[in-house]
Amino acid sequence: MNFSKSDQLLIGLVLSVATALGIMMQSSSLALATLMLGAFFLVPGLFARGVTSTSKSVARFSYAVAAVWLIAFFGGILGTAERIYYVNGNSYPRWLASGGLASADEMDALRQGECKGRGPLEISEKADGLFVVRCGTMWWESKTYLADFNPVRTAP
């Protein structure tokens, strides 16, 4: 498949930005995230080109890639909506939580066990009196617990 000049420019821009960010921040994960974001924006253009291909296998493959892209797109929208509700909502749905915390001992065990190495520990109080404890940032990669007590007071 031949790439047009604009595709080549976009690919070169994404590669250079990813390389520069990776070097400046000394982080391969940031470079990888930039590459994934660039690929995410490149897929619709490649899909449009693949659908108009004379080869049926290329067209089928384009539809499969587009389906995966749509799932990732809507998953990102749902993840963003959950995050906005988590931060701004008056309560948090129990069905989205991984479990509940009943005591300070469980909170300490959580800090030493499941939350260790999972990212930041976020604790937020909701209007209904419950506290939401989250290990990580986004719902799909984290563990979220509901607590009836103030877990901040139990911090070591």
Textual characterization of the structure:
This protein is of the alpha+beta class. The chain has two domains: 5-88, no CATH class; 94-147, no CATH class. The chain is built from four helices and four strands. The protein has helices spanning 5-25, 28-51, 56-88, 104-112; strands at residues 99-101, 121-125, 131-135, 143-147. A four-stranded mixed sheet has the order 1-4-3-2, covered by helices on one side. A hairpin with a 7-residue loop joins strand 3 (131-135) and strand 4 (143-147). Helix 1 (5-25) packs antiparallel against helix 2 (28-51) and helix 2 (28-51) crosses helix 3. The longest helix has 33 residues, at 56-88. The termini are far apart.
Task: Please outline the helices and strands.
Elements: H1 5-25, H2 28-51, H3 56-88, E1 99-101, H4 104-112, E2 121-125, E3 131-135, E4 143-147
Parallel strand pairs: 1-4
Antiparallel strand pairs: 2-3, 3-4
Short overview:
This protein is an alpha+beta fold and 156 residues long. The chain has four helices and four strands; from the N terminus they run αααβαβββ. Helices cover 56% and strands 12% of the residues.
How far apart lie the N and C ends?
59 Å
Beta-sheet strand percentage? 5-15%
How many domains in all? Answer: 2
Low-confidence stretches: none
Label the structural class: alpha+beta
What is the alpha-carbon Rg in Å?
21 Å
User: Sheet bearing the most strands, described?
Assistant: 4 strands, mixed
Helical content (DSSP H or I, runs of 4+) = 55-70%
Features:
4 strands; 12% strand; single chain; 4 helices; 156 residues; alpha+beta; four-stranded mixed beta sheet
